[in-house]
Known about the structure:
Strand 2 (about 55-60), helix 3 and strand 3 (about 90) form a beta-alpha-beta unit. This protein has helices at about 10-25, 35-50, 70-85, 95-105; strands at about 30-35, 55-60, 90, 110. It contains 4 helices and 4 strands, in the order H-E-H-E-H-E-H-E. The protein has a single domain, classed as Rossmann fold (3-Layer(aba) Sandwich), CATH 3.40.50.2000. By secondary structure, the protein is an alpha/beta fold. It has a 4-stranded parallel β-sheet with strand order 1-2-3-4. Helix 1 crosses helix 2 (about 35-50). The longest helix has 18 residues, at about 10-25.
Amino acid sequence: MPYLPRALRPLYDLWVLWALWKLMRERGFDLVPTHTSKAGLLGRVAARLTGVPRLIHTAHGHVYYGYHGPALSRVFVWLERWASGFTDRLIALTRAVLAEHLSFWGGPPPSSL
Length: 113
């Protein structure tokens, strides 16, 4: 997407999800790599809805705490746990970032580097 702001913009974010879904459906990707929290979630959801067989997420940071209030942070943790169930591989820039992500994901981790 040409522009995806970090801030939450629910209607625009839903439009981005639809646009990603449409793009993936039209092009028939076999693999979708995603990055960052919001773009990563939208990309993985669109890929899942489209039936893309392989999803890789690179963790650069997260929104599990420190950006929003406790209630919204819990929603983000829940959404990431849900998305982790259909993420095939998690790539992190450092072992500390990997450990922190896996601690929030809960359950068995995807293959990790």
